[in-house]
């Protein structure tokens, strides 16, 4: 009877963690409580969001559902892909570029300055000459990035994110600051999700203002009825917003897994330094981490790399256009405030994965010195044989682990060097009057 009462009390204490979105787990840090907290606060909501994006099945247990639900899930994913393709076509038909919006040409007519925004010839001339690089290539890179992540998450029933998240939470249970670390980790993960939502909101505002400030004319639809044109404009807004949602989803998935791997390394370091552990078991945990890291670098990173190429090109193209350094669109006029905000948004979304990768690489670098630090601890490992401590020291110093993008290790030193070089180039071009508006 006492056993049943204890189980009942434990169930009540386990379910009590649902009251607050960021409430910490109970101090007992039992495995069941920690896993319940992990799933309720971040894992289950985020997996449902990935299902909404078509990246995961609509049901959490696809093997146990009927064939009708599987067909429904596949049809939904196909609809998502078709919506993205429709968006690329509509953007070309409307001559709407993500790096610039609609290009306006300043012309002189009857002695007054007019913005020829509603003339079809203006939009046609803007679309000519750069169809491949302005529409086809960016659209293909965006679509392939989504399809690659879809293949990774669906083809082999990939469970990297749930496994990684549960392991990180379980590793932190026995640390001296376990429940505080879990609370901080949940808030950090939600921070990346919220950043994605903020980016989508700002991008949606910029896109809508650009569209409302321009007379939109669709190619091959000159004699269509107003209702058809209005429907196409609404579809253009919806598809463009969906493109941004896909963009934020791919980037946030990368950032979340990078943060989890960073916390994994930090918790493993604290575990070795705070408690006497079995060196062989600790090294096995590091080997498991290396497998997760290799999966992260080989299968999750390529999608972000494809998007980074597009995003960086959008940011640079928009910046050159603002300063009238485009060799073709010399007479086009940007919407100065929104055009700058558009460039900043593309710069932000392209830089976040590199920052997260550098943080993960820096944590991996710190792990190399943990063996020496544990070797010199006078109290924690005083009962551990010296031979085992020496094996940990040799093992950690020989580690070669880091986050990679474009198959290159990303570190903070490399990012600082790149920022320095770019700053020098910008300063030099400014001193040579390349950034003076004409």
From TrEMBL:
Coiled coil ranges: none
| Bilayer-spanning residue ranges | 67-90, 131-153, 189-211, 223-242, 300-323, 335-355, 415-436
The question of whether ATP-binding is a record keyword is answered with no
Keywords linked to the UniProt accession? Membrane, Transmembrane, Transmembrane helix
Tell me which positions the record assigns to the signal sequence: none
Entry keyword Signal:
no
The protein depicted here goes by the name Uncharacterized protein
Organism annotation: Phaedon cochleariae
Upper taxonomic classification of the species?
Answer: Eukaryota, Metazoa, Ecdysozoa, Arthropoda, Hexapoda
């Amino acid at each position: 009877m006492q056993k049943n009462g204890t189980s009942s009390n434990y169930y009540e204490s386990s379910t009590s963690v649902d009251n607050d979105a960021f409430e910490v787990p109970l101090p007992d840090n039992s495995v069941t409580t920690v896993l319940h907290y992990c799933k309720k606060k971040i894992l289950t909501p985020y997996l449902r969001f990935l299902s909404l994006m078509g990246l995961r099945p609509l049901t959490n247990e696809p093997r146990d559902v009927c064939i009708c639900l599987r067909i429904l899930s596949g049809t939904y994913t196909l609809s998502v892909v078709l919506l993205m393709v429709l968006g690329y076509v509509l953007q070309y038909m409307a001559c709407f570029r993500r790096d610039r919006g609609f290009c306006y040409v300043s012309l002189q007519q009857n002695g007054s300055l007019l913005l020829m925004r509603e003339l079809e010839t203006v939009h046609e001339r803007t679309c000519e000459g750069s169809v491949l690089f302005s529409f086809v290539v960016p659209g293909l890179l965006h679509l392939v990035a989504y399809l690659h992540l879809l293949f990774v998450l669906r083809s082999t029933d990939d469970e990297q994110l749930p496994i990684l998240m549960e392991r990180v939470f379980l590793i932190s249970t026995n640390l001296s600051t376990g429940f505080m670390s879990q609370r901080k980790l949940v808030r950090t993960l939600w921070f990346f999700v919220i950043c994605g939502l903020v980016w989508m909101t700002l991008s949606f505002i910029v896109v809508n203002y650009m569209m409302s400030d321009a007379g939109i004319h669709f190619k091959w639809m000159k004699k269509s009825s107003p209702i058809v044109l209005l429907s196409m404009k609404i579809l253009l807004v919806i598809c463009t917003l969906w493109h941004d949602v896909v963009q934020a989803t791919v980037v946030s998935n990368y950032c979340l897994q990078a943060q989890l791997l960073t916390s994994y390394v930090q918790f493993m370091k604290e575990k070795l330094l705070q408690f006497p552990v079995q060196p062989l078991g600790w090294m096995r945990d590091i080997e498991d981490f290396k497998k997760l890291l290799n999966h992260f670098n080989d299968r999750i990173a390529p999608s972000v790399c494809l998007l980074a190429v597009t995003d960086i090109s959008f940011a640079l193209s928009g910046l050159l256009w603002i300063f009238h350094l485009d060799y073709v669109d010399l007479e086009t006029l940007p919407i100065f405030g929104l055009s700058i905000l558009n460039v900043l948004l593309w710069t932000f979304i392209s830089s976040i994965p590199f920052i997260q990768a550098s943080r993960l690489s820096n944590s991996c670098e710190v792990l190399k010195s943990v063996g020496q630090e544990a070797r010199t601890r006078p109290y924690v490992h005083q009962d551990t044989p010296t031979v085992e401590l020496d094996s940990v020291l040799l093992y950690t110093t020989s580690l070669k682990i880091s986050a990679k993008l474009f198959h290159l290790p990303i570190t903070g030193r490399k990012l600082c060097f790149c920022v320095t070089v770019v700053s020098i180039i910008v300063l030099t071009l400014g001193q040579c009057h390349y950034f003076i508006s004409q």
